[in-house]
Design goal:
Elements: H1 3-13, E1 30-32, E2 35-38, E3 54-63, E4 73-78, E5 83-88, E6 92-100, E7 106-116, H2 129-132, E8 134-139, E9 145-149, E10 154-158, E11 166-167, E12 181-186, E13 194-199, E14 205-209, E15 214-216, E16 228-234, E17 240-248, E18 252-260, E19 266-272, E20 281-288, E21 294-300, E22 311-317
Antiparallel strand pairs: 1-7, 2-3, 3-22, 4-5, 5-6, 6-7, 8-9, 9-10, 10-11, 12-13, 13-14, 14-15, 16-17, 17-18, 18-19, 20-21, 21-22
Amino acid sequence: MRRVALAAALLLAACAPTASLPDAPVAAGASIRVEAKPVPEFPPDAPRPAGDDFAFVGGLELTSPDTSRFHGLSDLEVLPDGRFIAVSDEGDLVRGRLVFDAKGAPSGMADVTLKPLTNLDGQPLSGSKADSDSEGLALWPNGDLMISFERNHRIWLYPANGGPPRAVPSPDAPFPDNSGMEALALDPSAGRDAYITGREDTRETWVCRLSGGCIPGPRAAPDAGAGSLVAARPLPGGRWAYLLRDFSPATGAVIQIVVADGNGRALDTHVIRRPANVDNFEGLAALPRPDGTVRFHLIVDDNFSSAERTLFFTFDWTPPKGR
């Protein structure tokens, strides 16, 4: 849960039903049903801003009738075959498969499981927010998962074959309690074992290696205006995609998908703000395609609040000519 997201939740909750609290986790590996309701980017008759190079593919509102743990989804990876992995900021791991309609837009989720993350001893995380505030997610080619945590700031690697995780290098830097390593992503341009992590409030990044430590990297999108860094993904040609999130009572949530060069400078940006359907988007998946376009999937961390929705949006980005 981020400070701006919490502010949004508290502001909206004043005129909404009391937020539901998470129950105990469902059994490890338990299947859950996920129901999906179509959501447009803009309500009917709402004015649209000037066009950019991002095309809205489709949107969903996600709920589960089987567990109150299907909330707080903080980061996302989607594979080319539609399989996905998401992590919640209450320490749960969600896996499943996207379902697509006849036009190729996501229409639902199938084969979904939800289970608690484990600690270094192979036991479920304690459930305290200090230990279970998982925020960033990165998937290695061999199936290993890396997850970054806030409050008790650390990065753990979960092996693909199961078994307990192990700690991997993270920046030797002080982080605020609730503004830590929100962004986590592989960095193939820096080496086969390289990855980046990014601090939420300052948008600082570090390049780390499994075989060594971490060194400072460029600030994410320094020219993109206000917003906290909540996710990052590498793109072909040394480019990066950043997800930035800002909030104020006057404007509500403002989300930016920023495509940047290798130095973090913005090349193209899509903004999601009122009157669009917008909420606390925190997770970002990027799928480069053979025709040079990139498909982006975004997911909302609803903070386990009835004042927010778990939205899932999909966009296709076409690189402008000459970039």
